Amino acid sequence: MANVMRVDDQADLTSSSADDQAASGGQRAWRFVRRHYTRVLGLAAVLIFLGAWQLASDTNLINPLFCSSPSLIWGELGTLISTGQLWPNVWISGQEFLWGFGIAIVVGIPLGFLIGWYKPVGAIFSPFITFLNAVPRVALLPLFIIWVGIGIDLKIAVVLLGALIAILINVVTSIQSLDPQAITMARSFGASDFKIFRTLALPGSVPYIISGIRVGLGHALTGVVVGELYASNAGIGHLIAAAGSTFETNLVFAGVVIIAIFGLIANGILSLLEQHFADWRQSAR
Amino acid sequence: MTSNGLVIKDLTIQYRTARAGLKRALQDINLTIESGEFVCVVGTSGCGKTTLLKAIDGLVPADRGTIELDGKQVKGPGSNRAVVFQAPSLLPWRSVIGNVTYGLEMQNRARSAKSKATVQELIRLVGLQGFERSYPGELSGGMQQRVNLARALAVDPQLLLLDEPFAALDAQTRDLMQSELLRIWESTHKTAMFITHQIDEAIYLADKVVVMTARPGRIREVIPIDLPRPRPLSIKREPAFVEYLDRIWMLIEEEGRLSGSTAAPA
After folding, report:
1. In this structure, are A122 and A243 located in the same domain?
2. Which ipTM did the prediction report?
């Protein structure tokens, strides 16, 4: 009896100390969840969605032939890498994106400043910008094909036009929303036009430029994919189009995942850029 | 050295409105501000106070008459004048130091060691030491106006023009900033012209108060303020101060009644 008691005591002791540890561990986990609950919630939702998808596909609740499944897509991505199909296509799409987007930035920012700063230049360009902004750029694809063919130039042109308009509009807006009182202040100190531009317009336009680039980025990615879907012989969009027409659902999804990763990376770089320029904004909060 | 200070002769300024055509903002303004003097201009809104200040700064051209500062005619903005604007107009992406240096930079004078020392000294003078690296978004309204003042003083102007700089501040901060301004002014000996619609502010600060009337903007009367300096804020409750207050109030009230009965509402 006494023996049993002692054993029980020990059991109690050990179990209670284990409880303590579990409690503090649980508390720590709980605190983590509470602090990051939006992220935890988001992650959980994604995992549950993927799990449900996988389960529905495995149990043939949905037809994997039409809807694929996470594991099938994952396998397809592996195949793309091992067969050496991935990188050439990514490289093609990447080139189209970088050239088109790069030219849009290099042309769009200075041109936007000219249009915003000099009224006559603005008057000349704004009807064209309004027109191009109103027309879905996709509608111009057949024209572009007639002009430059279906090679990489076509996609560069589509990307360029899509991103350029977004960047232009934002840069022009940045000049138009300059604080007139700040300009008066600068003039009262005898500032030249060039100095007003350099010290007021340029730094003041940074947030607008970045948001223009962000909107342009969306247009650029759309441009790459739509251009390749419509007419191409290589690239991720081409991969998707070819897979779609041969009923390779897994490959279509794999292509979508690759484009999503593309977009995420580009957005991440943009966010870093934004943070770099937003020092005074953050400290102002 | 010809005539010292600011001399305005027969200044008339017109502007064009869409509806009423040509209107006179200022008519036949004659005013002399001695070197080192602190002059306040009061009047109802729309009497052309700010136009007068902008004309003196060279931002608005004169249609008739002349403005001379230390014998030199004013034709445009120049480094011998600086404005403290009603809105602080600070650049949000520049720190306090960057903002105070701004005027010097516009005049290509920011790089010299002397300028850098001046900026430091002014930041201390306006009471912002410790905030050199702060951004405008982190400062209160009163502190932002201190930066505004330091920015104007940094270019070392002969004439300091202040356009209702304390109008947007709360009453206590405004009182405090008035006495701070006097302290700073007394240590720099600048000529100052201060625009306001607050009569007590004008009397407290000024050597003389210029009362303006509206439509068209004219000078009604120039009243010398014979109160001893340095002036503590408590001077505002003394009989002599209140007497000035009454007198100027009457002038403006009279004017308000006259224009109220004759002029169409704006």
Report:
1. yes
2. 0.86
